[in-house]
Amino acid sequence: MARFGTALLDLVYPPTCLDCGAPTAAHAALCPRCFARLRPITRPWCPVLGLPFEVSLGPEARSAEAIADPPPFDRARSAVIYNEVARAIVSRLKYGDRPELAGFCARLMQPAGTEFWGERPVLVPVPLHRWRQFERRYNQSTELARALARLTDLGVATGLVARTRRTRQQVGLSADARQRNVAGAFTAHPDALRRLKGRGVVLVDDVITTGSTVNAITRALKRAGVSKIDVISFARVVTGADVPI
Predict the structure, then answer these.
(1) How far apart are CA 144 and CA 142, in angstroms?
(2) What domain range is 17 assigned to?
């Protein structure tokens, strides 16, 4: 019956590419041409921010960004560079009422975070303000965390951090404005340490742009006593691969 239902759905709504709309073999997928345009982030990369290097500079070499402004978290990793194809996927996941796209994104995020999973951390999605989540119906970061949890057999803690102040959308803001926008907007649960039971945290988000949001959340968790905090995202804005966000 399940196979029949899937076949009937494909007949009524034929699967198409997430980016260009070309026919595909399955729903929530890219055609071969668009998939080839995704730019995965692979080694060599900055061991702190996960930004890709053009050539290997050694295992401990850090990016200029990590040296100039060291982040409060330990490490960040992302699956792909934020380009036109990645933007189309994120936009549909975030604003297009397509939570099922989280599964596609998580399948690329899982190998990107290989360094993290053996430590058995807790996955913590970047929270939305309750009114924004009501408007969107779901939190795309929570959907990504749940999809990633199914692939890694890790737990998800959706209530560990709350966005207590409704902030402006970050789209179109400068780096300084983004930082001011989210300053003091997050609060960690008072029982965060007890809930974690000694485990570290991996923050889960769709896109890392300047890092202002994950930095603010990290600081809130550290104030609550959490010491081990990493970050994973589907896409990462990289200098030289300019795409408006």
Answers:
(1) 5
(2) 1-37
